Automatic annotation (TrEMBL):
It comes from the Bacteria. Its EC number is 1.1.1.58. It comes from Vibrio galatheae. GO terms for molecular function: mannitol-1-phosphate 5-dehydrogenase activity; tagaturonate reductase activity. InterPro entries: 6-PGluconate_DH-like_C_sf, 6PGD_dom2, Mannitol_DH_C, Mannitol_DH_N, NAD(P)-bd_dom_sf. One of its GO terms (cellular component) is cytosol. This is Altronate oxidoreductase. The lineage of its organism: Bacteria, Pseudomonadati, Pseudomonadota, Gammaproteobacteria, Vibrionales.
Amino acid sequence: MLNREHYPAYPTKVMQFGEGNFMRAFVDWQLDLLNEQTKLNAGVAVIRPIDSQFPPLLNEQDGLYTSVIRGINEQGEPVEEMRVVRSINEEIAIYQDFERYMTLAENDELEFIFSNTTEAGISFNADDKLTDAPASSFPAKLTQWLYKRYQHFSGSQDKGLFIIPCELIDYNGKKLKQYVLDYAKLWNLESAFVAWVNEANTFCSTLVDRIVTGHPRDEHADLQDRVGYQDQFMVTAEYFYLFVIQGPKALAEALKLDECDLNIKIVDDIKPYKERKVAILNGAHTAMVPVAYLAGIDTVGEAMADDELRQFVDVLLSDEVIPALDLPRSELDSFAASVIQRFQNPYIKHQLMSISLNSMTKFKTRLLPQLLRCVELNGQPPKLMSFSLAAQILFYRGKRGEQQIELADDQKWLDVFAELWLAVEQGNISCQQLVNAVLSDAEHWGQDLTLTAQLVETVSQYLEVMLQQGVRQALKEVL
């Protein structure tokens, strides 16, 4: 069993809400590297923000655990890297030891707060009270703690912190700060505290990117044999990671980023990086799914090993998606190359059907902005995005050969497609009429896409070829 006998602890400079796999394979893993490569010298006190005693606390292993990082490196080679992560000093169960949590507010060495309480964690509950032990919502718990720190240090400006949420919502730092201020108002806290929150603390919005595959249940015994010790908190993740933080230069200095080469970016605005990730990584997934699945492929890795599907993704990104984005071309090309490497990761079996959930909304958010930009630039719809849209419409027929597809989307779309495809099969409407009906839904798309130059005609032509010759042959012809 891991213990601190050979791993001295760092002074606690970080408080972290959330003990789950993602934070341990992302934030705590990066802090461990920073401690190793720089003078950061920062230990973490992890706060378990929910009322649960399962799994046991990280304290059983003195906060230590093994990260197993696997994937394709910069040289295109499969790699596996194991390390004992020793950045965590303790885990505090806030519902069982609220006093210990509040005592952390008196720690004058604390500099950073990180959090990942899921997308639902950053919320407001008007029933929360300052005297609760603890309050129910994460922002309320944080406000209780900040108020205690403000009181303990008499509002000292140098006792504020960098507060860095990792929840997957837009501008998470801005949203978290607003809820803290809302609780200060709800609880009638003094204006000087509000001023201290605003002036002494820096709330940073973030973009986080790493696939964390979690605890390796199926291979846990083998991995423990390989490392030579027991570790019930072992966690696995992909090789790639990116942490974009919207914050001041002072944050980069505080994290000692100039002393190492981690993929952490401190930027003025995370928006272009979010657009890049959504368009390139998520967009490639969404474009690939119906084409690859209907061509007989089941996983992302299998699609990347297929010459035609790999070419489809490469050309879609280089010729259609990237030209529609506003970041420097070299940076976009580099990110796209890293995405392809991630898709090729032999350690991750990413099922296409798992990505297909709510594909209609995903196409709207991930691909439609770039499709419309291409039309604006070129006067006609991009062929591969149009081809993917046709394949998606065919996917929602619910059949792959003789196999039924288990569709998962809003019931509205399931009903619409069932009715439209039945009408096509009965000869009551044409493929073009089906496409016209789908693209005319301005409530879903945000506009009537039948007014977009040649889009209905292009998508309809591809759909007809798919029905006549199959998706695989249609793909050969479009490339």
